[in-house]
Amino acid sequence: MTSVLETTAAVTARAPAKVNLELGVGPLRDDGYHTLSTVYQAVGVHDDVTAAIADEWGVSVRGRDAELVPTDESNLALRAARLLAERAGDVEPVHLTIHKGIPVAGGMAGGSADAAAALIACDALWGSGLGKDELEPLAAQLGADVPFLLHGGTAVGSGRGELISPVLARGTYHWVFVPTDSEGLSTPQVYRTFDELNAAREIDEPRPSPDMMAALRNGDAEALAAVLSNDLQPAAILLQPRIDEIIESAMGFGALAAIVSGSGPTVALLADGQEGAIDLSVALAASRTAEDILRASGPVAGAHVIPAPRLT
Ligand code: ATP
Domain named GHMP kinase C-terminal: which ranges (predicted)? Predict the structure, then answer.
């Protein structure tokens, strides 16, 4: 029989990946970050984080790319749990078990998703009761994408991306993601290359585009396809030319649009409905353009408690 202690001694939270529908990069700020104007969408590729009361703090990682994720104090989920513990006061240590479904270092914010899930799981486990609004400042300290992954949906991000306002978005969008080898393409390298490519010109403050807002308001995938944009894309392609080959093939196979996700290297393909997404992924696999293909729709909810951990 399960005791009450066992049923309350662990909580699992699930957090989604993100795709940037628009990523406008502005001037470099004095603190070394760029001003961003981005439109995020949360998509149905998930990581689950189980927080369990333990004798000592720790983290273990299972699932996709698990071997690439650090299990020391640099792990973002563990940092999130420790930050919440400082805020909440007298709490017991936790062991976190991360089940990864989001590609690591793919530009889909997997580490940030784990941080968001850890905040939600630990808040429930410890009964600190902060809720998303009070967790948001902690999320922003952990990383620019973390506040969005707490809330999910579709939202504009400003500042470094951490200042979130929800966007009225109708409909469901169907995506195919092609993760590629991230070697030679870290987020700081992509930004450095962006700076080099733009050294000779004045960079304006970025703003969300009215056409993007209209496409989302109307739930129009074709109109959205026409306005997807990512200022980091030229830098990512320069560092990893294979991205361009995938984009070209996918457009030939009927993708409505193809764009680098965040700082890459994952390529995000907007498909013409669910069937379009299936056809596109079959064509990419059959032509051997890509071996690793993920299909997901968005928008989906942000980090939330789920009933039970995944067993595999
Ligand atoms: P970003 O665009 O925010 O830089 P990303 O989506 O490209 O992120 P992540 O999967 O978040 O990439 O991983 C970036 C790096 O963060 C990894 O190389 C890894 O070393 C480190 N990291 C720390 N904690 C985690 C975690 N819980 N999950 C994944 N990566 C983590």
Answer: 212-278
